[in-house]
Amino acid sequence: MIISMIAAVSENNIIGQDNKLAWNLPTDTAYYKNTIQDKTIIMGRKTAESPDMFFSKKRNILITRKGNYQKENFEVTSGLEEALKLPEENEEVFITGGGEIYKMGMEIADKLYITRVHTVIEGDTSFPEIKPELWKMISERKIEADEKNEYSFSFLIYERK
Ligand SMILES: NC(=O)c1ccc[n+]([C@@H]2O[C@H](COP(=O)([O-])OP(=O)(O)OC[C@H]3O[C@@H](n4cnc5c(N)ncnc54)[C@H](OP(=O)(O)O)[C@@H]3O)[C@@H](O)[C@H]2O)c1
Fold first, then answer.
1. Is the Cα dihedral 103, 104, 107, 112 positive or negative?
2. Is 22 in the pocket of ligand 1 (CB under 6 A)?
3. Ligand 1 contact, 117 CB (< 6 A)
4. 63 CB within 6 A, ligand 1
5. Of 39, 48, 73, 84, most Cβ neighbours within 10 A?
6. Which class is domain 2-160?
């Protein structure tokens, strides 16, 4: 199994505010949907309840400490370790947030799909530091701001060294 994480992250590592994204970037949203729509995705309960949440057509798994929690279209698990027992052995699984789950995922992920949003912004949820001694960038593509996308941003892919 390949464990990947996907996130849009500001220059100062902010990923959200008030359980929503901190920007409107339709080109990044399209990239995100295209990347995860046929994959198994794993997320925290708060991200699953965010209005910005997108479903996978394949499999949606959420993590909660609430014993009898249920949500339509989701398989409910009690932790990341339990969630990672569900996918097939040979698939690429995406951890899709939020801050609490990325923090745990950073210890075990093989790959990071990061949209680096070129702004410094305020927010209440962060992505962990991507330490250059642990991660190698293997792909970079910059998209300029335009009438639809309020900031410029770069699609980055990292692999663990
Ligand atoms: N920019 C991006 O790419 C991106 C992506 C995703 C999310 N976000 C943003 O991130 C924010 C949400 O992140 P968040 O950190 O507040 O919440 P989160 O990581 O989505 O979910 C946290 C919840 O996960 C469950 N959980 C966490 N650790 C657990 C453990 N060890 N065992 C069992 N359950 C555990 C708990 O659920 P219970 O409380 O139910 O027990 C906890 O409240 C929102 O603003 C969202 O928009 C941004």
1. negative
2. no
3. no
4. yes
5. 48
6. alpha beta
Spatial separation of the C-alpha atoms in residues 104 and 83, rounded to whole Å: 12
Query: What integer best gives the mean pLDDT of the chain?
Result: 97
Nearest residue (CA) to ligand 1, atom 37: 64
Quote the CA–CA distance of 154 and 95 in Å, as a whole number.
20
Across 126-153, average pLDDT: 97
pLDDT band, very low/low/confident/very high, at 52 (cuts 50, 70, 90)? confident
CB 29 less than 6 A from any atom of ligand 1: no
Our answer on whether the CB atom of 41 is closer than 6 Å to any ligand 1 atom is no
Using one digit for the tens of pLDDT, what is the confidence trace for 72-118?
999 999 999 999 999 999 999 999 999 999 999 999 999 999 999 99
Ligand 1 pocket test, pick from 11, 76, 100 with the greatest ligand atom count within 8 Å of Cβ, gives 100
Q: Please answer whether residues 64 and 78 qualify as being in contact, where contact means their C-beta atoms are separated by less than 8 angstroms.
A: yes
Question: What pLDDT is stored for residue 139 in this prediction?
Answer: 98
Q: Please return the burial class of 127, using the count of CB atoms within 10 Å of its CB with bins 0-12, 13-18 and 19+.
A: buried
How is the chain split into domains, by residue range?
2-160
User: Is the preceding peptide bond at 123 cis, omega within 30 degrees of 0?
Assistant: no
